[in-house]
Each structure stands twice: as structure tokens, then as C-alpha cells.
């Protein structure tokens, strides 16, 4: 019953997104084929001086609200690209899935609707790496270390094949559970209604294996759902809790540390091929520099989040290492089986090996 109410409330948004993306399907290939781009590429790049080549405008989307940590990374990337190219490469940023949601991460690169994306996308390596704390017992900080530019896991993710090129991975952040009731040990999950991402069958199985109930709710509808009691709890990185103000509807923050959130910077493969070698190198360097600079920005932002939550009355309820280990023992085989069936043993093992090859912190 709960799911039906939320889905009906979200239908107008889905109609709008479908309409926008229908235009994008008709728009042609991002590699420069016949026809026009989405709404004539939405906002054409400003012209250069007479006799100079026309600037190239790239459309970049992400899922987070304007002003969020992800949006700050997008703005930093835009600044670096436009400065380094002297305005010949320009980036238009469309936040909060305004050109499509994260389920479109694979196909809208194929049909040329967008050129770049920060967030979820078609990387098998990223999808596995998200679960490394559950699979190996490592800490979120250890995953972050392995994802620094030039480290083995970073390099592995950047070897992306398919319809996209991976330019880099922003600093990872642990996904935390927020709840309207205290969860001091995981036996208290019994009966807790946890929101999961729509169509995320692994998340649903994970929480149900721990005794919780689940309900699928799009993130744009989640604040209202928490307010109305359609869900008791939700899991997201801390900075998205702040961006969507979930802390206003949730009393407790539980750092369960089972998953990390990876924001990957993707570039449409056909767009990449249409750029000069110099432009490709410029984009890669700008992305690498952005990821490196966002380490400090992210750390500072997360501290600000904790201060805001504390001031507004949110309580942190840590889960003991013993309790986390018992829960991991219960869910790890389920997660491993799912990922192996979806991505295969070779890629799965490569991710584990890349984590093991990362240097220890401080070395």
C-alpha cells in the first residue's frame, strides 16, 4: 500500500522526464551525426572572436541539487575545463536529474542525450567497489585511499569499456542510515521500513536479510515520504542527507559503513572520439585535478554536515564493530553471489585485487 501511494505521487515527474528524454532520443548521436541535439543543445555555446573556431559545448548532468557537494565538483570541473581550453570547451551543468534519472545512466550515453555525467553510470567496477566494505570488511577510508588518482582501483575504474569513458572518481563517502527511531544494534531493524532505490533488487535483498522491510521511493519524493511515515529510515551518504534535508525528518544517524557512494565522472565515448587529442588530454587532466582537490573540499563539507545535524538535534548512534561483523557475516554471501552473477568472476576479483594493492594510509 505504501509503495502505491508514493508511485502515484511521482507520476507527474515521470511524465515530464519521459517527455524531455523523448526529445533526446530524437536528437541524434552525440558524435556529431545529422539532426540537432536536445532542444538545439539546450543553450548554444557563446561564439568566439571572428576567425576563431566555434566553442564546443558539452552537456553535463548529475543527480544532486544545485549547490550540493556533487554540484560543487561539477562547477570546479567546468571552471578548470573552460580556463584550460581558453573557452573553446564549455560545459553546461544540469543538476538534480533534470535531463533524466540515474536509471538512464546507460542508455542516454548511447542515444546522445548528454555528453557527460557525474554519478551512477555503466561502470561494472564502480558497482562492485560500492560494496567493498561489506565484501572485505575494509573501512570507507581504505576505499577512498584506493580511489586516489593513480592508485590501482582508480586505474581499474578508468579502464571503462563500452559507450563511455571514465575520467575519474570523486572522493568516496560512506553511506549512513538515518532513522526516526534508534538503531543501536542491528537486531532492532526488525519491522523498520527502509527506503531503497527503485529497481535496486540487491539493496532490497540486503535490508530484508537484516530483518527490515523495504519500500521503493525516488529520492525526489523521499522527504515527503519520511514526513508522512511512508518510510522509517533511509540510506545515503551524509552530504545527500544534508542536500535533501532528510535530517529534518529523521532523529537518528547510524554510521553502519556497509557501502560507499561513488561519484564517477563519465564522458560519452562518441564525444570523446570527436575531440582532438589535446582536448581529450585537457579533459582528463581537469577531471584528475578536480578529484584531487575535492578530497579536502569533501572532508570539510562532511564536518559541516555533522555540525549542522548536531545543532538541529540529530543523534549519532554508532553500531559496534562486533554487531557490524555479525551483520556482515549474514549478508556478505548474498551480496557476493549477486555481484558475481551480474558482473562475472574476473571483474569481481580484479576489484578485490586492486583494493589489496592500494598503499596503506600515510605510506
Question: What does it look like?
Answer:
With 363 residues, the chain is of the alpha/beta class. It is 46% helix and 15% strand. The chain is built from 14 helices and 12 strands. It has helices spanning 2-26, 69-84, 107-110, 124-129, 132-136, 140-146, 152-157, 201-209, 222-227, 238-243, 269-274, 277-311, 321-343, 345-356; strands spanning 56-62, 89-94, 116-119, 164-169, 173-179, 193-196, 213-216, 233-237, 252-254, 260-261, 264-268, 315-316. Strands 5, 6, 7, 8, 9, 10 and 12 form a 7-stranded mixed sheet that branches. Helix 8 links the parallel strand 6 (193-196) and strand 7 (213-216). Helix 2 runs antiparallel to helix 12, helix 8 (201-209) runs antiparallel to helix 13 and helix 13 (321-343) crosses helix 14.
